[in-house]
Specification:
The structure holds two protein chains of two kinds. Chain A is an all-alpha fold. Chain A has two domains: 11-100, Alpha-helical ferredoxin (Fumarate Reductase Iron-sulfur Protein, Chain B, domain 2, Orthogonal Bundle); 108-184, no CATH class. Chain A is built from eleven helices and no strands. Chain A has helices at residues 11-20, 32-35, 47-55, 59-64, 67-70, 76-80, 87-100, 108-124, 129-140, 150-155, 169-178. By secondary structure, chain B is an alpha/beta fold. Chain B has helices at 16-28, 44-50, 52-68, 79-94, 96-106, 119-135, 157-160, 170-177, 201-217, 228-236, 238-245, 256-263, 281-287, and strands at 2-5, 32-35, 73-75, 115-117, 144-147, 181-182, 222-225, 253-255. Chain B has 13 helices and eight strands. Chain B has two domains: 2-117, Up-down Bundle (Glutathione S-transferase Yfyf (Class Pi), Chain A, domain 2), CATH 1.20.1050; 128-287, Rossmann fold (3-Layer(aba) Sandwich), CATH 3.40.50.11810. Chain B is globular. In chain B, the strands form two sheets. A four-stranded parallel beta sheet of chain B has the order 2-1-3-4, sandwiched between helices. A four-stranded parallel beta sheet of chain B has the order 6-5-7-8, sandwiched between helices. Classes of the chains: A mainly alpha, B alpha/beta. At the A-B interface, helix 6, helix 7, helix 8, helix 9 and helix 11 of A face helix 2, helix 3, helix 5 and helix 9 of B. Bound molecules: iron/sulfur cluster (2 copies). One iron/sulfur cluster (SF4) binds at residues 27-33, 47-48, 51, 81-83, 85, 87 of chain A. The site of one iron/sulfur cluster has 15 residues of chain A, from helix 6 and helix 7.
Chain lengths: 193, 288
C-alpha cells in the first residue's frame, strides 16, 4: 500500500475528530482493540490500522475499507482502549460520514440491511420482520437467502404476518424528518499532534 | 408491584418465547407489567449506525411516553432495546446540546426520570435473589449452564452501569439461585455478530461456532441468554453451523426467563418453549 503524506491537510483526521468527539491522535497503535475484535479476521484493515490511516488523513483508503461495515458495534475495543478512545464510535462515524456524503459503501449488503430495516420502521413505527426480510432479498437480488429458516420459523410461529403500527404518526414523521446524521458535540480539546 | 414494560419488536416475532416466559414469570411473582403506550421501535443497530440522532430519538420517544404515563421505571427484556434506551437517556442527561436537539425533533420533553432495567437487573436487584430463592419449587440442580451475556447487556459499561463488562456475574447468580451450576468459560461476553445475521451470515456462523465450542469445552449442557439476537443466532442457526463446519453441537439455548419459569414449576408450554429450534427435551428431563 502506498501512502501519500500530506501534512498540509489535517482535514480528514480533524473532521473525524470533531464528528466523533474523540481525538484520533491519542491512539498510540498498541493493537489492543484489534486483539479483541471479533470481526478482525474478516476485515481488510484492522481497527488499529484504520486509526493509523485516519491519523495520516488517508480519507480514500478509510472510506474504501470494509471494516466499519463489518464492525458489529460490540464495543469490546472501546472498553479496552488504554487511551479511552471510543473506537466503536469512530467506526460508526465513518459509516455515517460516508452515508451523509453519498459515498458508495464498500459492503453493500450491510448498508441495504440498515436501509430496509429503517424503511420498515419509518413506515409503521415498529419493525415488521417478515416484510423487511422480503425487501432485503429483493433489493439484494438474493431471493432465497435465509429462506431455509422460513419453514421452521413458520412452524413454531416465529414468522408473523401481522403488521403492527404505532398511532402517533406525527411523532414518527418528525423523528425521521428532523434527525440529523450527527448529534451536536462539544469541541474536543485540541492536543499537541 | 407495577412496572413499565417495553417489549420491543422482536418480542412479538422471533423472540416470542421471551415475551411469553417473561409475562408468565411476572404473573407468578404478582408483578404487574404495564406496556409503554404506543411504543415504537428503538432503531437497534441500523438506527445508530445510519444517523446518530435517529439512533437517539427513536428510543427517547419511548421514554417520553413512559414518563407521560407516570411510569417511574421500565423493564426492557430485549438487550438491544435496553441498550438503546439507556444510551438515549445517557446522552440526553450528559449533553445539554443533545437534550435540546431531542426536544426540537420530538417536540416534547421528558417530565420525570424513568429508570430502565434489563431482565437480569430486574430479577437480581429489583425483585431480589432472596425472594427469588424462596419461590423456587423445582431447583435446576442437574444443570450445567453456560451463562452467555453477549455485548449489549454489559457494554458500554460507562453508559449501562450494570455488570462487569469482561466477567459479568448477574446471570450466574440468578442461575445459582435457581439451583443450577454455572460453568466458567471464556465466551461470556464475546460477540455473536448480532444483526449481521442477515447481511453477513458467514461472520455470525463463525462467531457462534466459537461460542458453542467454548461452552462444550467447559462442560455446559445448555446456554442461557437474555437477548433475542443472541438467541436467534445460537438457536435458529445451530443446524446451519453444524452443516457449515461438520460439527454436531446439540446445545439448547434458553432465555433466562424460561429457566426461572421452569424452576417455578411452570410448564414448558406455558413458557412458550415449543418455539425452540434445538430440542429442549433432554435438559427439561434433567430438571425432572
Ligand atoms: S486500543 Fe486504543 S490506543 Fe490501542 S491501537 Fe486501538 S485505538 Fe489505538
Ligand atoms: S466494536 Fe467493531 S471494531 Fe470494535 S471490537 Fe467490536 S467489531 Fe471490532
Amino acid at each position: 500500500m502506498q501512502i501519500k503524506l500530506d501534512n498540509s491537510v489535517d482535514k480528514f483526521a480533524g473532521e473525524i475528530e470533531s464528528l466523533s468527539g474523540f481525538n484520533v491522535y491519542d491512539c498510540y497503535q498498541c493493537g489492543k482493540c484489534t486483539a479483541g475484535c471479533p470481526v478482525a479476521q474478516f476485515t481488510d484493515e484492522s481497527p488499529t490500522k484504520l486509526l493509523r490511516l485516519i491519523q495520516l488523513n488517508q480519507k480514500d483508503q478509510v472510506l474504501k475499507s470494509k471494516t466499519p461495515y463489518l464492525c458489529a458495534t460490540c464495543n469490546t475495543c472501546s472498553g479496552r482502549c488504554p487511551m479511552q478512545i471510543d473506537v466503536t464510535k469512530i467506526m460508526e462515524t465513518i459509516r455515517i460520514y460516508a452515508k451523509k456524503n453519498h459515498i458508495k459503501p464498500p459492503v453493500q449488503e450491510v448498508n441495504t440491511f440498515s436501509d430496509v430495516f429503517l424503511d420498515s420502521v419509518h413506515s409503521g413505527g415498529r419493525l415488521f420482520e417478515f416484510g423487511m426480510t422480503l425487501n432485503y432479498n429483493l433489493k439484494n437480488m438474493t431471493p432465497f437467502l435465509n429462506a431455509q429458516l422460513a419453514p421452521a420459523m413458520l412452524k413454531v410461529g416465529k414468522l408473523s404476518f401481522i403488521r403492527q403500527k404505532t398511532k402517533n404518526k406525527k411523532r414518527l414523521k418528525d423523528i425521521f424528518d428532523k434527525s440529523d446524521y450527527f448529534e451536536p458535540k462539544e469541541e474536543v480539546s485540541k492536543k499537541e499532534h | 408491584m407495577t412496572y413499565g414494560y417495553y417489549p420491543g419488536c422482536s418480542l412479538h416475532a422471533t423472540a416470542k418465547e421471551f415475551n411469553i416466559s417473561m409475562r408468565a414469570v411476572c404473573k407468578a411473582f404478582n408483578i404487574e407489567l404495564t406496556e409503554v403506550e404506543d411504543w415504537n421501535c428503538c432503531g437497534a443497530t441500523p438506527g445508530h449506525t445510519t444517523k446518530e440522532e435517529l439512533g437517539l430519538a427513536l428510543p427517547y420517544s419511548n421514554l417520553i411516553n413512559a414518563s407521560k404515563q407516570g411510569l417511574d421505571n421500565i423493564v426492557a427484556p430485549c438487550a438491544a432495546c435496553y441498550n438503546r434506551l439507556k444510551s438515549a437517556d445517557y446522552s440526553v442527561n450528559n449533553s445539554p446540546l443533545v437534550k435540546e436537539r431531542m426536544s426540537q425533533i420530538i417536540g416534547e420533553e421528558k417530565q420525570r426520570d424513568v429508570k430502565i432495567f434489563n431482565v437480569l437487573e430486574f430479577f437480581r436487584d429489583v425483585y431480589g435473589l432472596d425472594k427469588l430463592k424462596s419461590e423456587v419449587k423445582k431447583p435446576l440442580s442437574n444443570l450445567n449452564a453456560a451463562c452467555y451475556y453477549g455485548c449489549l447487556l454489559v457494554r458500554p459499561s460507562k453508559v449501562l452501569q450494570f455488570d462487569d463488562e469482561e466477567d459479568p456475574q448477574s446471570m450466574d447468580q440468578i442461575m445459582q439461585t435457581l439451583g443450577a451450576k454455572t460453568v466458567d468459560w471464556s465466551s461470556k461476553t464475546e460477540c455473536c455478530g448480532g444483526s449481521h445475521a442477515i447481511p453477513e451470515t458467514e461472520i455470525v456462523l463463525e462467531l457462534a461456532r466459537r461460542i458453542f465450542s467454548s461452552a462444550v469445552k467447559a462442560g455446559a449442557d445448555c446456554i442461557v441468554v437474555a437477548c433475542p439476537l443472541c438467541h436467534s443466532n445460537l438457536d435458529m442457526r445451530q443446524k446451519q453451523i453444524n452443516a457449515r463446519y461438520g460439527t454436531n453441537f446439540d446445545l439448547p439455548v434458553f432465555y433466562i426467563t424460561e429457566l426461572i419459569g421452569l424452576a417455578l414449576n411452570i410448564s414448558p408450554k406455558d413458557l412458550g418453549m415449543n418455539a425452540h429450534f434445538v430440542d429442549t427435551k433432554i435438559v427439561i428431563e434433567k430438571i425432572g
